[in-house]
Amino acid sequence: MHISKTVTLAAILAAASSSALAGAETVVVTATRSPQPIEVTGSSISVVTAEDLRDLQTVAVDDALETTPGLTVVRNGGPGQPASIGLRGALAGQTLVLIDGVRINDPSVTDGEALMADVLANSIDRIEVLRGPQSTLYGSDAIGGVVDIITKLGGADAFTPSAEAEGGSFDTYHVNLAARGTVDAVDYGAGVNLFHSNGISAADARNGNRETDGYGNAGATGNVRWHVSDAVSLDLRGYYTDARVDFDGYPPPAYTFQDTAQHGRNILTAGYAGLNLALMGGRLRNRVAVTRTQSNRETFDPSVGGEDFHARGTDTRVEYQGTFDLDAANQIVFGAEHERTELATESIYDYPPVPTKGHADRDGVYAQWQSLLFGALTLTGGVRHDRDGEFGGHNSVKLAAALPIGDWGTVLRGNYGDGFKAPTLYELYSAYSNPLAALAPETAHGWEAGIDQSLMDGRARASLTWFDRRTSDEIDFFSCYGVVSAACTLRAAQGGYYYNVGRARARGLEAAASAALSDALTLAANYTVMTARDETADAPLARRPHVMANAELTYKRDDWSLGLSVLYVGRRFDGAYRDNPLASHTTANLTASVDVMDGWQVFGRIENGFDARYEPVAGYGAPGRAFYLGIRTAQ
Q1: Residues with Cβ within 8 Å of residue 388, at least 6 apart in sequence
Q2: Which helix (H) or strand (E) holds 253?
Q3: What is the distance between the alpha carbons of residues 175 and 152, in angstroms, rounded to a whole number?
């Protein structure tokens, strides 16, 4: 598989992995917000291609993301249960997720994270995973980095369809239908998906919980570009998910985590409308766009008579971006953004049980200069200023360098970046808001240094990256239990409030390698060793393993293929202060496919082949061995 691009060399090469370095011709857009060869960005980027998703037989996007270096996935159980991602130890909500340029971080969620459990793989062209603080170009939420999901658009033919259907363990069935093509001056791509599984018990079945918690998801994505002329084009993009999931809770009288009849529904709608205008013979490229994300979340508990929680959030953005090629060696990217987020939520468990409503406005401007010096050294520098009605102004900077060494196939690179995360609307406006002081944004400063190496006449690539990030003013909940203070007097009924206190540091080494061992056999590996600590509590960050590793071996012939992938997640703690240690676990998947007739392919996989039993989060279960079989169009 060829997932990573600026991934890293592995001490684990013998075990091999599921991330591979893409070739030197790889072009990415996320690092600089303009198409650039990967080797000149100076940044650590992994790319999951459509071929990788197909080889892995990926259903949920977070399964593929977990194969990239430095990325942690935290799942509260089986299919559809809450899942969050963190890059290089970043907390939930500190990683920005985009789909076709639209933010899907949910403003109605307490920490503003993207609901990754509902993001399924359909009509995806590639996923770019950019590691390290990235607020200079992306503003709030990009402390850990950016995950950019890009769907398919256009093609050589007017109509290229694809279809996939599978079924298997836990009464699971899954259908994907998609099409793309180019008709005259219009490029298009679209897909729909339907997923259902009876799942497993969210509360660990080994603790006596036998009721399965099912999950269903219906979604669609669409992408259209109309080339009005050689200089003008219009973009329309849309994304929609409607998911229902059963989950477990803490019922009386024991109030321990166990089977319950609770369920929830999450609906997310995202849209993009943009105008692209090229001037000065194409040297100046302009983009004006409006994006909007709207979420609607509800949970239901039959024991209290029905709905016990609802939340609605919107994020509306107006963006301008310009890209100006001064000459062949210098490019400037600049832009301005206005964002308005809104929240309306209510829970019967909050005190008092009244709606929480609020909104925030934020304006940002940025500029970045990329220059090629001496025909080899690429330097990139950027600056950004954000103005927020709640916390005032914030500045971010970025510096990056990339230097190829002669004809050795070696690239040296380094990168420094700032990140920040604005307080969420729930932290600002709920009954648990800080009664005495305005919350400040969480801020981060990070750097990395790495080396990329091409080997075996380009048939193998390897890379090594050292990274370090410090985060300040992290927002946490202060418990007023047993505390006498002015703030606790004002929040006595609620029991506490949000405040800025946290300091964290994440540092470590990412290593990966990939090799084409023959025309049919490929091997890839990545390995991350990371120390992520809460420096305020002087303890490891919760749910952030010290060691993660992936391995993948793939054998492909013209009409059939076999693949073996292995994922290792090291020991970690489920809570602060070394609470609830979680054991390491290793899972192995086996995939296979064979062409059965013209244009069609039968495929199947075994997930968790060794039937590893573990808790991804304390008290929660994980699926055991599972079998799936399906049919799809051959590509």
Answers
A1: 360, 361, 362, 394, 422, 441
A2: none
A3: 18
Spatial contact of 97 and 128, defined as CB atoms under 8 Å apart? no
Domain range for 203: 27-545
Q: Cβ(162)–Cβ(189) under 8 Å?
A: no
pLDDT (0 to 100) of residue 423: 96
Please report whether residue 366 resides in a domain. Answer: yes
Residues 6+ apart with CB under 8 A from 383: 136, 366, 367, 368, 395, 396, 397, 398
Give the per-residue pLDDT at 129. 97
Q: Where are the alpha helices (DSSP H) in 416-556?
A: 425-429, 486-490
Put residue 171 in one of left, alpha, beta given phi > 0 → left and psi -120 to 50 → alpha. left
| Total structural domains within the chain | 1
Which pLDDT tens digit goes with each residue over 440-475?
999 999 999 999 999 998 899 999 999 999 999 999
183 falls within a domain: yes
pLDDT value of residue 350 = 81
Q: CB–CB of 152/178 below 8 Å?
A: yes
The confidence band for 6, taking pLDDT boundaries of 50, 70 and 90, is very low
Tokens representing 222 are 């669409």
Position 11 pLDDT exceeds 80: no
| 452 located within any domain | yes
CATH at 461: 2.40.170.20
Q: What average pLDDT score do residues 400-417 get?
A: 94
Residue 247 lies in a domain: yes
Question: How far is the CA of 394 from the CAs of 140, 216, 278, 337, 362, in angstroms?
Answer: 10, 41, 31, 14, 11
478-510: pLDDT as tens digits: 999 999 999 999 999 899 999 999 899 999 999
If pLDDT is split at 50, 70 and 90, which confidence band does 25 have? low
